[in-house]
Amino acid sequence: MNGEPELFSDSTTNCNGTTGSEAISDVIQAKLDTLEKKAVHLRLVLEKDFKAADFKWSLFVAAAFSFRYESCLRPFPPAFMKDGVKDMDELLNVLTDVPALDLFLQQLDDIDNLTNISDIIDLLFYVLVRLKEPSLKTVPAELHSSILGNTNSSAAPQPQYIFQVHNSKTSHTEAKWKDMSKNYRTFYAFHGSRLENIYNMLHFGFHQQTAKNSSLGTGFYLSPDLNITLPHSHGGFGWGASTIGGHLSCVALCEVIDTPDGINYKKPVSDEGDGIIQNSNKISMGSTPDPKLNHYLVMNSDLLRLRYLLVYAKQPTSIRFSTTSVNRNGGGLRQWLTRHKLMSILLGYGLMLATIGFANNQPMNYYYKMLLKKLDLAYGTVKV
Questions:
Q1: What are the helix (H) ranges across the chain?
Q2: At what angle do helices 341-359 and 332-339 cross, to 10 degrees?
């Protein structure tokens, strides 16, 4: 007892009899256990339906890289919310580190490496596992014709992939829709939208506030003719490492409740020029709609349910991202520029202004020419 305070080391014992180093190792072990559980769930999802998982991830990436991410990227991963603000720089930084999913499966075999790719595991787990409602299921190619047979799509370009949108029996929105459809018939029709909008549409359906205004009223345009819908399904870049394709176009096939006051049916302009609205045509479920009808304006979004997603894809490239995770605490100038895009743009703009100013500055030009003359004289002296 010399009156000096005792210094606590890493091995100091706490009130529970556990040393500080042991407590830290317990935290690391708990995190590793959580990562291992997430890895197991991810492996099950990827092995069960790899293409569906790949496509779902591509939809998330397309929404994340959209300049309208505030409306498109919903739901947003809560891990990237900082004080109520979406940290898009950090999210995009993790996105660029995600390898092709087939390579990611191989990384999951290395238990010791899980902590190095923890950010990637957490993000993929959120998108592919935690957001399980609704789920996507790949429709076999031999069943495409039976699905498209419910509409006028025989002469239209056929999609490379069709994914079924499956809702669980406990889904509140699905139960509400089925309750509304009890006394009415239903029919199928196509809806075209930009690729970046599909992620939001998949999880939240059709919202009345996003409906379009027209002379026919406010609502959502659908058509039984795939050829009419395709021009409205603007293609976009999804995920470059996707096995489906980096550039995708997506058409939604919806099931619609046929109510007398919820839908306007528009016929094409006839030879006599009488473009009119028809509300009398009722289409039974599973039947082919009237070929004279080419547009439906659904004014009540509650009448719509997304059933299938038709995907048109360009052939995937052979590019694969690195299988090793990038160290985000280093990486040099290139990674710094990638993480600070706005600052990079400002620095480039400043460099451009400085170059222009230098070129137009007479004194600087004088000293520049004098320097060149001295260098030329020095070079000539050395050469002699």
A1: 20-48, 50-64, 69-72, 88-97, 101-107, 118-125, 144-148, 172-180, 195-204, 226-229, 332-339, 341-359, 362-383
A2: 110
Backbone angles phi and psi of 83, in degrees to 5:
55, 40
List the Cα angle 195/196/199 in 5-degree steps: 95
Asked if residues 96 and 77 have their Cβ atoms less than 8 Å apart, the reply is no
State how far the Cα of 285 lies from the Cα of 250, in Å rounded to an integer: 23
Q: Are 251 and 297 in contact (CB under 8 A)?
A: no
How far is Cα 1 from Cα 11, in angstroms, rounded to an integer?
A: 21
Which residues partner with 250 through β-bridges? 311
Q: Which positions ≥6 away from 220 have C-beta within 8 Å?
A: 191, 206, 211, 212, 297, 298, 301, 304
Cβ contacts of 14 within 8 Å, gap of 6 or more = 20, 23
CA atoms 47, 51, 52, 58: torsion sign: positive
C-alpha torsion 193→198→200→203, nearest 10: 130
Name the nearest CA neighbour of 298 among 369, 373, 217. 217
Whether 307 contacts 255, CB under 8 Å: yes
Q: What is the pLDDT of residues 42-68, one digit of tens each?
A: 999 999 999 999 999 999 999 999 999
d(CA 219, CA 233): 17
Contact 190, 151 (CB under 8 A): yes
The 10s digit of each residue's pLDDT in 201-258 is 999 888 655 555 554 566 788 888 898 888 888 888 888 899 999 899 999 999 999 8
Q: How many Cα atoms occupy the beta-carbon half-sphere of 364 within 13 Å? A: 8
Would you list the DSSP string of 82-98?
ETTEE-HHHHHHHHHHP
- Tell me the one-letter amino acid at 259: T
**Token pair of 248 as six digits:** 């995708």
Q: Are 195 and 249 in contact (CB under 8 A)?
A: yes
Length in residues, the chain = 384
Q: Which pTM was predicted?
A: 0.69
**pLDDT tens readout for residues 107-147:** 998 888 899 999 999 999 999 999 988 999 999 999 999 89
Q: Which among 164, 169, 205, 179 is positioned nearest to 304, based on CA atoms?
A: 205
